[in-house]
Specification:
alpha/beta, Rossmann fold, two-stranded antiparallel ribbon, about 30% helix, globular, SAM-dependent_MTases_sf, methyltransferase, Methyltransferase
């Protein structure tokens, strides 16, 4: 009875919900924050540019400018489907409370792909994104799904640099927090993991979705126009394990997507899903 309105527990209703999600989404640029900035493309690997703008400011400006765009390429759709289906199929591994539905934080939410994937298992979905334009996309998705602001709503915010601006009971005490394909866009990945962990309830789970670390752009390859918005070419498993431990998370888990992701250049990259939980004795009540 605590599920989202219109989402029943039976299999047929769940299937209808997922079909509705797939029909309405035309993934905006932010939805593929690093999918669009393909993994083999060159990064500035810096947090400041000659204009003295922070990496956060650069990301906000770039994805605000791209918020109205939709990406219809087959490889983009395939990648979104990989992430969405993996999250749905592994919801018990992610973390599902007994009885009531999940309270989910979708950080760097874009148009809400993560939220839609977990909607059948959630009672509350909250999105935060550094780009106001992308927050508009997220809230538009909620409206098109027929969900009220109490059920699904996004706000603009930056946990790493201005966490106080997105504080309060509505944005804390989450059962699950997910950051999908965006950790490589922040200046301090370990600090971001800690900030996200701080938003979890007792036993709550943090899930990071990203690329396995890979090489830089081969000589002669073109530089993508969004390359100035990223700081990393993916992460190693031991890096993720260390970041989760330093954030006070336990029960670490690490899964690779069973299929590699094809890139528009013809190459392939590997998605990972890292999970950690807040120990019961240190979490929020």
């Amino acid at each position: 009875t605590h599920r989202l309105d219109g989402i029943e527990e039976d299999r047929s209703s769940l299937q209808r919900t997922l079909q509705l999600c797939s029909r309405i989404i035309q993934p905006p640029a932010r939805e593929l924050r690093h999918q669009i900035t393909t993994p083999s493309e060159q990064s500035t690997m810096a947090t400041m540019t000659a204009s003295d703008k922070s990496i956060g400011e650069l990301n906000r400006e770039w994805f605000d400018s791209m918020a109205g765009s939709a990406y219809k390429a087959d490889w983009v759709r395939d990648l979104l489907q990989q992430i969405s289906s993996f999250l749905r199929d592994n919801v018990e591994w992610i973390g599902q409370p007994n009885g009531a539905g999940l309270k989910v934080l979708d950080y760097a939410c874009g148009g809400g792909i993560v939220s839609m994937a977990l909607a059948p298992f959630a009672s509350v979905l909250r999105g935060i994104d550094i780009s106001g334009g992308m927050v508009e996309q997220y809230n538009d998705t909620a409206r098109r799904l027929g969900l009220s602001p109490e059920q699904m709503h996004g706000v603009r915010g930056d946990l790493l640099n201005d966490a106080e601006a997105v504080d309060g009971p509505e944005l804390t005490g989450f059962h699950v927090a997910v950051m999908s394909m965006a950790l490589h866009h922040v200046a301090d990945p370990a600090g971001m993991v800690k900030k996200l962990a701080d938003r979890l309830a007792t036993g709550g789970s943090l899930v990071i979705v990203d690329w396995v670390e890979h090489g830089r752009t081969p000589p002669g390859m073109p530089v993508h126009p969004a390359s100035h918005t990223i700081t990393r070419h993916g992460f190693r498993e031991d890096e993720m394990r260390t970041m989760f431990a330093e954030a006070g998370l336990s029960d670490y888990g690490y899964l690779l997507h069973p299929q590699r992701s094809r890139m528009p250049s013809g190459g392939e990259q590997q998605l990972f899903f890292a999970r950690g939980r807040v120990p019961v004795q240190t979490g929020q009540l």
